[in-house]
Amino acid sequence: MANGLAKSNKQQIERLKHAINSDTVQQQFRNALAREAGPFTASVIDLYNGDTALQKCDPSLVIMEALKAATLKLPINKGLGFAYVVPFKNVPTFMIGYKGLLQLAMRTGQYKFLNAGIIYEGQTVERNTLTGETKINGEPKKSAKPLGYFCYMELGSGFKKTVYMTTAEVTAHAKRFSPSWNAKVTPWKTDFDAMALKTVIRQLISKYGPMSIEMANAISTDNDEDPQAEIDANANGETIDIEPEEEEDDEPESAEEEPRAAGGPGY
Question: Which of 79, 193, 261, 263 is buried most deeply by CB count within 10 Å?
Answer without folding.
Answer: 193
